[in-house]
């Protein structure tokens, strides 16, 4: 309960301060562009509005990024998540499309189970390459990143499979208790992962393995098993994200589904404060990071920025976030400004100035 | 050039790290055309002194002069430019580049921005010829033997008009012939007037080549001696040293009561246990309540032997029995299940997870043994951690502090606490008191006595003989990767006798090398 002034450094020093600032700025920019941006309304008992859309669309990214967080915490990386999205989406859609009655819930559930099963195998494949055989994670998962696209094409026979299944579409665009189902699902998975890592000792053990693998081994941790586990979790998360993405458009495209999602996921993790070197991880930070990236994507489209240049714009914002977050960069930036300009203002106020500029 | 004026002096150098005084008023001088051995056990301050000299670290007090001019290098580059070059233990060259490229990397001869390859090759050949090395300079460095790589590193170092050449354990990975080759080059450079600082753990090499010896211990200067006036035994004595006042209180209660140790089935019994290329087969028993000291110089196989007990490395021969029953220890987990605990000598790389808190580090082994599905309840964690923070007086007494912020001694206590809460029956301590201040050292020693009185078996490895003598019931002496003898710690055993056994190895080795 300190005074406002004393509380200020605690707020500005928080890991998520800058990502949240940028998120708020992005939302503000949207409001300036379209004043009705923040409006949320209830139509037919369902929640609608741009904000709701942003959260709904970020659901798959949140899922992929959660798995990625655990992998990165062990000091690894998983480049294959985009391909796993494509494979699982293709698998689910293929099975559903072969049903006589695509609206049969049982058939859809079997399809989902089959797709999750394949994702499990793919996760074990990644984990084995990394933990048992000892290939560097970036190379090990690069194999599946490339091969997985081929596998997806094999499943769909090179076609785009379209499905017409209400239960399946539900995953992407349905509603539960006024909320979009995707949001509820993402929230549930986030809670599940949080409970799994923070209510058990798994989180600490993952952090120990990522922080110092050899010390962990000598303390009796089965580091290999833990590494294998996180790649499996990552693949399963990606599979569920694959359902959302394909259900959203009611079709599975082996080439386009989940394309480049691994990069967005890695960015979300890093923006959330988890170091690529492994060790401490922050699930909450990852969720904020994913929301930030999706907001950025949506804003780019909403503001009619030429889609050709959208990626460039996105990249610039991401670089800015990463730089602002780095204490070393802030310190450098700062010294230059103070030596050039007015030296008097206290640090807290100058920081605010910097954001506004 | 006058031989009476030192090319380099370091006067009253002190260097503090948080919680540790790494160097305390150390003097060092170096004359042109001499090989000067810098000796001391691990943690004595040799590397810190070299790093201070070459500008890797700043120094807190003291002065450095080069040719009578005060200098203070901001980094190794600046030191090299001023003529002080260093060749490190691990060759820091690029194996994927050619020999010539490695010699001239960063300062290739150029014209209009383009590298003059032919000129570079010619100059590299000339340089190597000067060192009597016949090499194709276009070959990849990685295809050469380690010794040749080492010599290329030296060639690179002396090409920059070096007047002082620092060789930091250059021979530790070389075989006898390669060492000879290196010595030849060292002599040649010395005769050219270059001053060489030679850091090594091999006593015979020191006596073969060094003109003078400076000995450090615990960050302090022990003395500077002409090699001819310092017999090998005296050198070992000076390196290992005798512990001072703060520990004397413990001495009173020492002279461990040999009768108190239970006989009967030993807690662990190693029979011809060994691992090829690491440690020769040895046999050793440790009983309940017994402290077995392991003495020997660095690289004598002490750590390697201890790691076999814990499964940190897997033995490829011999047998291990726990409580008389043969067991196969395939990894740390198997050892922990049999209540064996191991505190590695490398706290930072093999002990602690620096980023995690004191609490998490302490709980780690217990948690690992329970499996991740059964977390130690938070209240029990806090209770255990609090108890051990108090019992071992870990400072600061903040369980949530990242462990990397603690001083060396407190980090050591955290590792100890981690294993003590697993209630081990055999505790292996590898250099538990190295690099920590004297107060923490005394506390840890007292703890070992307490634990063994309570029935714990302890394998205590240390380079400090005083400490080994004070704590152990019996002392196993390692030399050249062999357990040479086991000495009961009765009244007749003193540091001199152990030193003779340790140094005996060095003399013997000396003999075989010179046959």
TrEMBL record, chain A:
Keywords: Cell membrane, Membrane, Sugar transport, Transmembrane, Transmembrane helix, Transport. GO terms for cellular component: plasma membrane. This is Simple sugar transport system permease protein. GO terms for molecular function: transmembrane transporter activity. The keyword Endoplasmic reticulum does not apply. It comes from Micromonospora avicenniae. It is found in: Cell membrane. It holds the Pfam family BPD_transp_2. The chain crosses the membrane at residues 16-33, 54-73, 104-125, 131-152, 173-195, 228-245, 257-274, 281-303, 309-329. The lineage of its organism: Bacteria, Bacillati, Actinomycetota, Actinomycetes, Micromonosporales. Its main location: membrane. It is a multi-pass membrane protein.
UniProtKB/TrEMBL annotation, chain B:
It is a peripheral membrane protein. Transmembrane segments: none annotated. It is found in: Cell membrane. It holds the Pfam family ABC_tran. GO terms for cellular component: plasma membrane. Keywords: ATP-binding, Cell membrane, Membrane, Nucleotide-binding, Repeat, Sugar transport, Translocase, Transport. The keyword Transcription does not apply. Residues 8-243, 261-505 form the ABC transporter domain. It comes from Micromonospora avicenniae. This is Simple sugar transport system ATP-binding protein. The keyword Cell membrane applies. It comes from the Bacteria. GO terms for molecular function: ATP binding; ATP hydrolysis activity.
């Amino acid at each position: 309960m300190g005074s406002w002034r004393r509380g200020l450094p605690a707020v500005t020093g928080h890991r998520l301060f800058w990502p949240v600032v940028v998120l708020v700025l992005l939302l503000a920019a949207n409001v300036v562009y379209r004043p009705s941006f923040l409006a949320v309304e209830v139509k037919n008992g369902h929640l609608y509005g741009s904000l709701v859309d942003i959260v709904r669309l970020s659901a798959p990214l949140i899922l992929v990024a959660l798995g990625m967080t655990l992998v990165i915490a062990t000091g690894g990386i998983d480049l294959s998540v985009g391909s796993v999205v494509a494979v699982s989406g293709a698998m689910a859609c293929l099975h559903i499309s072969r049903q006589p009655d695509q609206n049969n819930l049982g058939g859809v559930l079997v399809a989902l189970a089959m797709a999750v099963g394949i994702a499990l195998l793919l996760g074990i494949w990644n984990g084995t390459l990394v933990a048992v055989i000892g290939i560097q994670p970036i190379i090990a998962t690069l194999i599946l990143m490339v091969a997985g696209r081929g596998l997806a094409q094999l499943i769909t026979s090179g076609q785009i499979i379209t499905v017409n299944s209400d239960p399946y579409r539900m995953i992407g665009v349905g509603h539960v208790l006024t909320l979009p189902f995707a949001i509820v699902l993402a929230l549930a998975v986030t809670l599940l992962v949080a409970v799994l890592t923070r209510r058990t000792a798994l989180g600490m053990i993952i952090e120990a393995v990522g922080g110092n693998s050899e010390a962990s081994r000598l303390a009796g941790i089965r580091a290999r098993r833990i590494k294998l586990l996180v790649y499996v979790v990552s693949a399963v998360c990606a599979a569920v994200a694959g359902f959302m993405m394909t259900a959203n458009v009611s079709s599975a495209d082996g080439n386009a589904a989940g394309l480049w999602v691994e990069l967005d996921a890695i960015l979300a993790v890093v923006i959330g404060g988890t170091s690529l070197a492994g060790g401490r991880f922050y699930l909450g930070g990852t969720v904020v990071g994913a929301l930030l990236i999706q907001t950025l994507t949506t804003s780019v489209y909403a503001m009619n920025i030429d889609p050709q240049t959208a990626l460039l714009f996105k990249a610039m914002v991401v670089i800015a976030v990463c730089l602002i977050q780095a204490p070393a960069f802030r310190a450098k930036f700062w010294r230059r400004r103070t030596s050039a300009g007015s030296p008097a203002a206290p640090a807290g106020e100058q920081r605010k100035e910097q954001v506004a500029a | 050039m006058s031989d009476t004026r030192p090319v380099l002096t370091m006067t009253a150098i002190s260097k503090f790290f948080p919680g540790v005084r790494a160097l305390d008023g150390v003097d060092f001088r170096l004359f042109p055309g001499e090989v000067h051995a810098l000796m001391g056990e691990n943690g004595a301050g040799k590397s810190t002194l070299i790093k201070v000299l070459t500008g890797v670290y700043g120094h807190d007090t003291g002065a450095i002069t080069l040719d009578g001019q005060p200098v203070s290098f901001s980094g190794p580059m600046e030191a090299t430019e001023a003529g002080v070059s260093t060749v490190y233990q691990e060759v820091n060259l690029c194996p994927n580049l050619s020999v010539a490229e490695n010699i001239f990397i960063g300062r290739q001869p150029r014209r209009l921005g383009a590298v003059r390859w032919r000129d570079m090759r010619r100059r590299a050949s000339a340089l190597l010829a000067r060192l009597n090395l016949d090499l194709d300079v276009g070959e990849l460095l990685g295809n050469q033997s380690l010794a040749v790589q080492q010599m290329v590193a030296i060639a690179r170092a002396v090409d920059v008009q070096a007047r002082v050449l620092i060789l930091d354990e250059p021979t530790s990975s070389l075989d006898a012939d390669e060492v000879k080759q290196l010595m030849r080059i060292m002599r040649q450079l010395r005769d050219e007037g270059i001053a060489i600082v030679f850091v090594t753990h091999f006593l015979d090499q020191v006596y073969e080549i060094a003109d003078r010896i400076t000995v450090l211990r615990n960050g302090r200067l022990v003395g500077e001696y002409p090699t001819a006036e310092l017999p090998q035994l005296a050198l070992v004595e000076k390196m290992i040293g005798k512990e001072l006042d703060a520990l004397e209180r413990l001495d009173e209660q020492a002279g461990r009561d040999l009768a108190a140790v239970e006989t009967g089935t030993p807690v662990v019994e190693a029979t011809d246990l060994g691992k090829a290329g690491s440690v020769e087969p040895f046999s050793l028993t440790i009983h309940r309540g017994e402290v077995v000291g392991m003495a020997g110089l660095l690289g004598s196989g002490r750590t390697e032997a201890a790691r076999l007990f814990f499964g940190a490395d897997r033995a490829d021969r011999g047998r291990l029995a726990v409580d008389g029953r043969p067991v196969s220890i395939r990894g740390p987990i198997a050892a922990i299940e049999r209540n064996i605990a191991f505190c590695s000598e490398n706290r930072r790389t093999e002990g602690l997870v620096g980023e995690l808190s004191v609490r998490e580090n302490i709980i780690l082994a217990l948690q690992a043994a329970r499996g991740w599905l059964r977390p130690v309840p938070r209240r029990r964690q806090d209770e255990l951690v609090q108890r051990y923070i108090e019992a071992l007086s870990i400072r600061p007494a903040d369980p949530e502090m990242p462990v990397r912020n603690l001083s060396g001694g407190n980090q050591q206590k955290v590792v100890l606490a981690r294993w003590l809460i697993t209630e081990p029956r055999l505790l292996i301590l590898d250099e538990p008191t190295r690099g920590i201040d004297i107060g923490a050292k005394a506390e840890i020693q007292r703890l070992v006595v307490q634990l063994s009185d309570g029935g714990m078996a302890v394998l205590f490895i240390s380079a400090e003989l005083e400490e080994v003598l004070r704590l152990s019931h019996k002392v196993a002496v390692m030399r050249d990767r062999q357990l040479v003898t086991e000495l009961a710690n009765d009244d007749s055993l003193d540091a001199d006798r152990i030193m003779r056994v340790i140094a005996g190895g060095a003399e013997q080795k000396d003999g075989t090398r010179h046959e």
